[in-house]
């Protein structure tokens, strides 16, 4: 479960100017929240999805790993750190050295037992309200992937043996098919 790291309220700029750390920190409602470090299987899944997404996007746009994302939800600005993000080629201007300053087209989270509720509820809500088009929730325990298409107001669960095409990538003329078995295959190696 994520824990409150500090009760002192901070601004986004103050948070982003903190020294680099190995801790997984986010700024939620002005407060720093720390999550446990991910397990090896979690990192392996992130790496596999990164490679699949880079291949699918053919170098167009930006695939970003574990970078700060400034999210404006109804005037309340927070800093989340998705496991992965994709920003379309024509929107790469939101990618800065210190953070992604605007909604990525796709945000991806790999679930961990300690952060599952946050990923499924509060991050989903923040990403939707902040303008993310698609949110992929990768569930290693059930070997399932839940795709929220916020633009169309739909969601779909894919399990082993299924494949899917991202609407966002399709609109970029990148007709990449993702196979769930390919994503979770890294856990069997």
Description:
The protein has 189 residues and is an alpha+beta fold. It has a single domain, classed as tt1808, chain A, CATH 3.90.1570.10. Helix content is 25%, strand content 32%. It is built from five helices and 14 strands. A six-stranded mixed beta sheet has the order 4-7-9-10-11-12, sandwiched between helices. The chain has a three-stranded antiparallel beta sheet with strand order 1-3-2, with no helix packed on it. A three-stranded mixed beta sheet has the order 6-5-8, covered by helices on one side. It is globular and about 45 Å long. The two termini are 28 Å apart.
Jot down its keywords.
alpha+beta, single chain, tt1808, chain A, globular, six-stranded mixed β-sheet, three-stranded antiparallel β-sheet, 189 residues, 25% helix, 14 strands
Quick summary of this structure?
The chain has 189 residues and is of the alpha+beta class.
Would you tell me the structural class of the helices and strands?
alpha+beta
CATH architecture heading: Alpha-Beta Complex
pLDDT average, as an integer?
91
CATH topology: tt1808, chain A
Classify the helix fraction into a percent range.
25-40%
The strand count comes to 14
Q: Strand sequence of the main sheet, in spatial order?
A: 4-7-9-10-11-12
- Which regions contain 5 or more consecutive residues with pLDDT less than 50? none
How many whole angstroms does the radius of gyration measure?
A: 16 Å
Output the CATH homologous superfamily: tt1808, chain A
- What's the helix-strand series? EHEEHEEEEEEHEEEEHEH
Give a short account of the largest sheet. Answer: 6 strands, mixed
Query: What is the straight-line distance between the termini?
Result: 28 Å
Instruction: Return the CATH class.
Output: Alpha Beta
Instruction: Using the alpha-carbon principal axes, give the shape.
Output: globular
Strand content: 25-35%
Count of domain modules: 1
Q: What's the total helix number?
A: 5
């Amino acid at each position: 479960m994520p824990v409150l790291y500090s009760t002192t309220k901070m601004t986004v700029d103050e948070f982003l100017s903190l020294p680099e750390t190995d801790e997984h920190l986010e700024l939620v409602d002005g407060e720093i929240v720390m999550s446990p470090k991910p397990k090896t299987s979690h990192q392996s899944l992130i790496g596999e999805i990164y490679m699949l997404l880079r291949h699918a996007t053919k170098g167009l746009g930006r695939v970003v790993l574990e970078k700060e994302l400034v999210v404006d939800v109804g005037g309340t600005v927070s800093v989340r750190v998705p496991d992965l993000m994709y920003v379309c080629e024509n929107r790469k201007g939101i990618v800065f050295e210190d953070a992604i300053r605007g909604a990525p087209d796709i945000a991806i989270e790999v679930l961990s037992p300690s952060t599952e509720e946050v990923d499924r509820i509060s991050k989903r809500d923040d990403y939707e309200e902040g303008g993310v088009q698609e949110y992929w929730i990768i569930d290693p325990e059930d070997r399932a992937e839940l795709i929220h298409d916020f633009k169309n107001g739909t969601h779909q669960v894919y399990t082993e043996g299924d494949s899917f095409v991202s609407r966002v990538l399709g609109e970029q003329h990148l007709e990449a098919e993702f196979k769930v078995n390919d994503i979770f295959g890294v856990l069997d190696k």
